[in-house]
Write a structure and sequence with these properties.
globular, 1 helix, three-stranded antiparallel sheet, alpha+beta, about 20% helix, about 30% strand, single chain, about 80 residues, disordered C terminus
Length: about 80
């Protein structure tokens, strides 16, 4: 976890963030294929044109195997 006394570093938007986020989501989803999860690119780097802290954030949801429509948000640990 970051030191709360450290300044936050925000950078200008990078047009490559969208493609990089989609690639990460694809790769993580492929690695977890067959498991009841939903992976998404979230945070400021997922918003085109928005200044952001460098780095991509991902979110994962655990899904009920019987009903994939019922997913609960979970932080994608280590991803």
């Amino acid at each position: 976890m970051a030191d709360l006394d450290e300044p936050i570093h925000v950078v200008a938007p990078d047009p490559a963030w969208g493609d990089q986020g989609r690639t990460l989501v694809h790769d993580i989803s492929a690695a977890l294929r067959g498991l009841p999860v939903d992976v998404a690119h979230i945070g400021s780097t997922a918003v085109p044109g928005l200044e952001a802290k460098p780095g991509h954030r991902r979110s994962g949801r655990l899904c009920d195997r019987q009903n994939r429509g019922r997913c609960r948000p979970r932080r994608a640990a280590g991803l």
